[in-house]
Automatic annotation (TrEMBL):
Name of this protein: Membrane-associated HD superfamily phosphohydrolase
Organism encoding this protein: Proteiniphilum saccharofermentans
First and last residue of the signal peptide: none
Family matches, as SMART domains: HDc
Matches recorded under Pfam families: 7TM-7TMR_HD, 7TMR-HDED, HD
Length: 686
């Protein structure tokens, strides 16, 4: 057994670091590679930094709108390129000559008709026939001309000098001499031999267009090294904004070199490694239970990596404002399934890594940290849907208040507030509202259980609990009493009271398989164990744990609740039948496995409290009187015996905790079994 535990522990020590290493490499790979400009600025807003001078010579690029307008202006004089496909003319004439001898509609024509058609076909092909779409497009252009390539020479020609298929056909019919009947030509379907032979040359046209555009200078003027650009507090005007944008562009372009890019990659890797490493260290030293829980580790690392990746994609492709991304979901989900400190640490890790990519990182960090803190305050324990809705409104309010405060602090003018950002906060709020659905998905994917689910499971109208109350009413009442005892002790120790309450309600559902064999369900004078061998009676009693496990799995009860079913007796014995067998068989050796529950023993504070509460509540029913002394003796006797048997060795519970549990049990049992006032009888007048 020791070897197995050691092997699992070693695997965990490899698995968890491996998860973090993969997350670091994955995040680094998707991190934006472009060099980062150290300053953030907006036109019309004050410069937040000190004096800025040009670090090197750089051109002042024209604004995008101006550059596009100039390019569009020069493109008005651009002429697309076309080529003549001579094979089309040869093929069409060859087809006409063949049909003139073989097809009746042409063979019956007089020789002068055939000669006329052939000459006209040659004429229109020599002139050039083009697609009507190309013709219309060029006709509507400024130049109304194109460049026709013949070999290595291209000449400019007006589009009116070309035919379309329709105009070429009309040309053939309209030019007929008086000796030729046009109607006879129409019947001959000569349009079948008219095809486009002037074709658009996309490659040459695109190349020529690019060369045309390059005639427009993309910059106007230069900024010399050391030249003053702007100082702190000055408003970023249009010209200054253009200069700053040009400096940013040049800085980012210069960072594209291989050597510099490699150093940048190393810097990103170091920062990401440090942030994930800090979170890893936090789990290792301050949350060792979470560190050993593989599902929890994978869940948290995936959540952090996902939001960092989402930030990288949003910033790189400029999809939408960064304030639409609901970073509060990281806090909400980890707070719901793990704890507040871990949620805050994970949120800080996500926010700091994301701030390395976003514009205005200071503003981003202040707002997101404030939202993370409010999320934790508002979700002390998620047990109702209304809590999430309420917290979503407070998160929205936090976004608005903190952003407005920052703007007023930095700008000193309410008119400088960008009200569009408030719309982004509203969209963020809508996404956070949907996080309730994410809670359910995470529960199903990772096997977690939230406070909301515990509340739903503990509803006594749930089909399984209702069936228990009908088939084994005594067991159901016992479960309710155990639930009250265990909840009181859990609340005193700071354990999960909701979890232990739900676990107590389900811990004895296996008794539904044979309810009459358990004393709490037996009528006076009824004892199904009478006449049964002690081994058989013990087997029936012990099997209620196995039966409970089967029933719970059949009804998809979460594993956290099944843990209470498996551990509430640990590896103890049904002492009544074991001792009875020993007394009936003096001197004989017994197989203790026949009289021992399968276990395992409790391994959490909640399951340990549950085991104590179950044993104490069941035994308390047999007391002849309920005084504080008798209750104290009973509680001490039962729990001390469990401690002596070593049932709590695997549970993180101290002797001080156990004493606290004893005191709570005595207090609660005294309240449950207190004597009641005897009501006097009404004396009737004589």
């Amino acid at each position: 057994m020791q070897t197995k535990k050691k092997r699992i522990r070693i695997k965990t020590k490899i698995f968890v670091p491996l998860v973090f290493i993969i997350a670091v490499l994955f995040t680094t790979y998707f991190f934006p590679r472009q060099g980062s400009f150290k300053y953030n600025f907006n036109e019309g807003r004050p410069w937040q930094y000190g004096l800025l001078t040009a670090p090197f010579d750089f051109p002042v690029y024209k604004p995008a709108a101006q550059l596009k307008a100039e390019q569009d202006s020069i493109l008005e004089y651009y002429e697309p390129y076309f080529v003549v496909d001579e094979e089309i003319q040869k093929s069409a004439l060859a087809e006409f000559d063949a049909d003139a001898n073989l097809k009746a509609r042409l063979a019956e024509l007089a020789p002068e008709y055939k000669l006329y058609v052939r000459n006209k076909l040659n004429e229109v092909f020599d002139n050039g026939i083009m697609r009507s779409e190309d013709y219309d497009r060029i006709y509507q252009s400024h130049t109304q001309a194109l460049r026709l390539k013949k070999g290595n020479v291209a000449e400019s020609r007006k589009v009116e000098t070309f035919f379309t298929i329709r105009s070429a056909y009309e040309k053939v019919l309209n030019d007929v001499p008086s000796s030729i009947d046009a109607d006879i030509l129409k019947a001959a379907n000569i349009n079948e031999y008219i095809h486009e032979n002037v074709l658009y040359d996309a490659i040459t046209s695109e190349k020529a267009q690019n060369e045309f555009i390059q005639q427009v200078d993309i910059s106007h003027g230069m900024v010399q090294r050391g030249q003053r650009i702007i100082d702190q507090g000055e408003i970023v005007g249009p010209q200054t904004y253009n200069i700053l944008s040009s400096l940013k562009r040049v800085t980012e372009e210069q960072s594209g070199g291989t050597t510099r890019n490699n150093w940048m990659l190393l810097g990103q890797f170091m920062l990401i490694l440090f942030m994930f490493g800090s979170f890893y260290t936090y789990l290792l030293y301050f949350r060792p239970a979470e560190y050993r829980n593989r599902k929890h580790v994978v869940f948290m690392v995936l959540l952090i990596a996902f939001f960092v990746l989402l930030t990288a994609i949003t910033v790189r492709f400029e999809l939408f404002s960064i304030y639409i991304v609901p970073y509060a979901i990281v806090t909400i989900l980890i707070r719901t399934f793990i704890d507040s400190r871990t949620a805050l640490f994970a949120s800080l890790t996500t926010i700091i890594m994301s701030s390395l990519m976003v514009p205005f990182p200071f503003e981003f960090i202040v707002i997101q940290i404030a939202v993370a803190m409010v999320s934790i305050f508002m979700l002390k324990e998620l047990s109702e849907r209304s809590q999430l809705i309420k917290s979503s409104f407070f998160i929205l309010l936090t976004y608005i208040v903190v952003y407005t405060g920052l703007e007023l602090y930095q700008e000193g003018n309410v008119n400088e507030i960008n009200w569009v950002v408030l719309v982004y906060f509203l969209i963020n709020f809508i996404f956070i509202m949907f996080s309730y659905s994410l809670v359910y998905l995470v529960e199903r994917s990772f096997g977690f259980i939230s406070g909301v689910s515990l509340v739903e499971l503990s509803n006594i109208n749930k089909p399984l609990l209702k069936e228990l109350s009908e088939k084994a009413p005594g067991t159901f009442q016992h479960s309710l009493q155990v639930s009250n005892l265990a909840m009181a002790a859990a609340a005193k120790l700071g354990a999960n009271a909701s979890l232990i309450r739900t676990g107590a309600l389900y811990h004895d559902i296996g008794k539904m398989a044979n309810p009459a064999f358990f004393t709490e369900n037996q009528a006076p004078g009824m004892n199904p164990h009478a006449g049964l061998p002690y081994e058989e009676s013990a087997r029936i009693i012990i099997n209620h744990v196995k039966d409970g496990l089967k029933i719970a799995q059949k009804h998809n009860v979460p594993q956290q609740i099944i843990d209470f079913i498996e551990t509430h007796h640990g590896t103890s014995m049904p002492k009544f039948f074991y001792i009875s067998w020993k007394n009936a068989n003096p001197g004989k050796e017994t197989n203790e496995a026949d009289f021992r529950y399968p276990g395992p023993n409790p391994f959490s504070k909640e399951t340990a409290i549950m085991m104590m509460a179950d044993a104490v509540e069941a035994s308390s029913r047999s007391l002849p009187e309920y005084t504080e002394e008798s209750l104290r003796n009973l509680v001490d006797k039962i729990i001390d015996a469990q401690v002596a048997e070593g049932y709590f060795k695997s549970a993180p519970i101290t002797f001080k905790d156990i004493q606290t549990v004893k005191d709570v049990f005595v207090e609660k049992l005294a309240t449950m079994y207190h004597s009641r006032i005897a009501y006097p009888e009404l004396k009737r007048p004589q």
